[in-house]
Amino acid sequence: MTAGYVATILAAGSTTLLLALSSLLVATLLGLAAAFATLSGSQTLRRIAGVYTFVIRGIPDLVVMLLIYYSLPALLNQLTDTLGWDMRVEFSPIIAGVLTLGLIFGAYMTETFKSALQNIMKGQIEAAIAYGLSRRRLFLRIMLPQLVRLALPGFTNNWLVLAKATALVSLIGLQDVMFRAKGAAEATGKPFTFYLVAAGFYLVVTILSIALLSWLARRFELGTKELAP
Fold it and tell me: I want to staple 133 with a disulfide (CB 3.0 to 4.6 A). Which of 45, 128, 139, 185 is the partner?
């Protein structure tokens, strides 16, 4: 019986990884957009990015998740009723989870990407513009490789925290590793056994992530030289 529950818990690993990777994609896109907005010449964009990062980082993750899963659909349904539209808005647990984690970690990624962008030598960008590179080629050829290299340490930390934060989404009914571990613990009266299985899953994800991202960091460090002080 125990083996069956363990298999059920581990089988939910695909759901947890889907949630984590989808949230990471949203967080990365939001973080990049907010980082560029923060460094842009537009005061409006800077203010919007500043308010976003300040508000999201100041609210507990669980509160943000409950607002998105329960409050936002209720608000949208009130709006559709007012407009006379015959439609109801509901978020599935995984959609709410992706939106929540993407929004939260997008705020943290903003600071990571902002710091990386500020450390790219302006002389290189000015030289590329002088040579007539388009904005697209400037970003892809000059900025992106350096952005990846400089942002990887902070990106790695954010990813590791995000991967573990997916456990929160079990509270709104997502059938992930944590949800099934909780169900197995309650059904068998063996919480230590099944929560340990869940802990082992997250630990394996952490170890593999560190190994992969460390290898990637070494690849991007090839060809770079430390400047003498």
Answer: 128
